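sorry for the late reply, my laptop died twice this morning and i had to redo everyting from scratch. anyway the thing you sent over, i finally got around to it. pasting the sequence first so we're on the same page, its 334 residues, then the predicted structure underneath. double check i copied it right bc i was rushing
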Amino acid sequence: MESIQVVPQAPTFTLPLAKVRSVYQLADVESKLGKLQHSDAREHDSLRNTYERMLERGPERFQMKPSGIPEMAPLYDALPNFTDVLDDVRRHVALSHDSTDGLEVTPMLLLGAPGIGKTHFARQMADLIGTGMNLVSMGSLTAGWLLSGSASQWKGAKPGKVFESLVDGQYANPVIVIDEIDKAASDAQYDPLGALYSLLEHDTACSFVDEFAEVPIDASQVLWITTANDARGIPNPILNRMNVFEIQPLTPAQARHIALRLYQAIRSSHDWGSRFDEAPSDDLLDKLATLVPREMRRALMAAFGNARLASRGLLQVDDLPRGAASKGRIGFVQ
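ok and here's the structure:
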């Protein structure tokens, strides 16, 4: 599942590479590989290749470090209903920017209605921090080992997402987004969220063991962002490990502002944009403001196309998809 960019990219600041950090011990890998040398069983080939890759890549990964407290006004402007979350990120940056520590952010849960922009916010944070985003969608997850890996003796076994992010990635503090965490299916035998009990605790995450490789991995620097529509589907022990932010719907004025920014971004990023007026009509902005952010871009792209077919440079409300044009103003904070 991919997130959809619903507002234009805000300018970001660059976090320089502060230092390198070892995310595993070579001796542990060499020991595991040595035990496999006495076995010619082909079923161990994947595990053997994993250990050899770990030795080849080495354990050191870059850890991003802020050089100062950034000017985040563009992000506050682009994400007006995420002010509390941005404040929290800024506080963590303030703690680390003039120290030898890398950036650490308390795991967070973004709680709010579908389409409100939670996954987009997570992508903006990954861009801001500069370590890339690893998205795990729980909405379609059926295997409990996706995060923690599956035991090597099982057919088709492989490492989990956390292991892959740290071993195959470049950074010791990547952003991992658990999307729709409240939709994770679980049973007594395979719990998709089971690994989070240790991963979200700094002390236990320092020596996280993937069930496939069975080598301790330092996952303590991972930046965790989870999203959910309803907190009732999340076990309390996991909720208690995160800062929970209830994301409010946009006010009509905020939604109108985002619609204007999105119109301008789409127009300026396409060659055909020059055929359209620099600013949309008030009527069009008012109608777009009735949509959740996720739907605005799709509606605008359809409207641009319809206006072009009609040889017009000014978008009209009737250019919007019929469903979007007929929606009323619902779900807003007054």
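The longest helix spans residues 252-268.
thats about all i looked at so far, will dig more tmrw
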